[in-house]
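JOB MANIFEST
job_type = single_chain_structure
chain_count = 1
residues = 622
[input]
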Amino acid sequence: MNKRSIATVSLSGALDEKLRAIASAGFEAVEIFENDLLSFGLGPRDIAKLCKDLNLDICAFQPFRDFEGMPEPQRARNFARAERKFDLMQELGTDLLLICSNVSPNSLGGIDRAADDFRELGDRAGRRGLRVGYEALAWGRHVNDYRDAWEIVRRADHPAIGVILDSFHALAPGFPVRAMASIPGDKIFLVQLADAPKLELDILSWSRHFRSFPGQGDLPVVEFMQAIAATGYSGPWSLEIFNDQFRAGSAAQTAVDGLRSLILLQDQLAPDWPKLVGEPLAPPKSSGTGFIEFAVNETKAGELAQLFSQLGFRKTGKHRSKAVERWSQGKVELVINSETGGFAHSHYVTHGPGVCAIALDVDNAGLAMQRAETLKARTFYQPVGPGELEIPAIHGVGGSLLYFLDQAGKNWDTDFEPVASDANGDALRAVDHIAQSMPYDEMLSWLLFYTGILDLKRLPQMEIADPRGLVQSQALINGDRSLRFVVNGSSANRTLPARFISEFFGSGVQHVAFACEDIFATVAAMRARGAGFLDIPDNYYDDMEAKYDLAPDVMAKLRANHILYDREGDGEFFQVYTHIFDERFFFEIVERRSYQGFGAANAGIRLAAQAREVRPASMPRV
């Protein structure tokens, strides 16, 4: 049974903090990184005891550098160094030392020379019941390919000497992984896993700063693990991540993300790979948004209700015991919660007006909760009144809630008394997508959260030009595109997403997009009810006229209604934005005509227009 492991270098904090976070997340093993041990105040025996108390096996101690192929007297010194490391390992209670390929300018090439060194080291390790694993660094001076590392191990021909395979060092340089299948599984002493985004960087800088967990990058880690599976390897799956964001963030959250990444990887490999400890459930099948809940006070509730009415929603329900209203249009369900107690009120006190909860339609809410709990999501429970439906929920982005609505179970609307109202409009069909803004260094974590718990896949990441900096945007969609999330982050502190986070006091939903069939008729009806929309400059429409062969009457309607336009092949996309509500969130109306994107070409225009509308960042709120 393959154990889940992670190297301590992947997390922030002191060694004991790292170990506790790793154990709490649910890992069974750990690699102790040498610098973590050297900088820690307790000795190796104390660390061994702490790991035992935390039920963590120490699967490796690493790294031992610049060993093989050195001339004398450095060669003799290296064997003396190795004996000292063996002493330390025995105190730690681990039997595996990781040696990475030599990068010293003094090192001598030659596979046989390196094999001789490892054969002698194997004799020394074997006498102590220890093992040595050899890893090819992608920037190694003479050995930078795992195939060469394996050939050295093969020629050393010693039971205490094996190879260590690292997904980054194999995949980042583009080495073929099929050759791994020919390595005997018992000669692979450890498998290390890391993903990474595609970047135009030298490989050393790429590795040292931008590694990520499997599923967070662009490397074919699944293909790597399929090749490993063919060997019969049965040792740990160990994460080794060098990432500046991770080292500056929460050790506890990083460890949870790491565990999620392994479970998600396991899902992708099943059924070809034996299950890990704690077999997870398959992700639930989602089918769209059940409802979106807004937390406000009594005054803002009236203002938000007026905006909903202008957009064609009608009040269809009043909660049986709480200051909560239901507003409906097509398949869109919105909830205004102005209670003075409970979760929504706490969310309002912390963040001000905004989305406090999103409910998702899934095929089985109970199984969705079990999967979320397996992935260490924080569950949420709140007392409910007599006859009220208890909806399973977990904590999501910015402390908001993510509800799971069971299609086969009770309907959430049983909590509401119907309200008779005049028909307003049914132009809006469904929630098209939900956009959430967050600090850039949280994006990888939340992307893993969504793709791990739900049946969502990532689209290619986009860079959007805000007038005050770049915004990274990542879309996530389910199979039938009934559920779409867009995650936005920026490291610049004056972009619109960054200012939203500042105003909202944290991450959250910055806008919700609704889909319609005829945007011109829809917007005309909304304007007639008093709705206003974001002002788009004439320069944009002048460029549209030159760029596309749109009919004059279409161009006139786009310009008059401040509607943005984009085209992908034969697909067309129309979008229009409301003004920002209370300087926090806004709504988008879209029409898709065989178009699958999100109007990325227009995002910079929209951000610039919104920047002109919002209060200057230096101006205090009155």
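[summary]
The first strand starts at residue 4 and ends at 7.
The chain has a mean pLDDT of 92.
exit_status = 0
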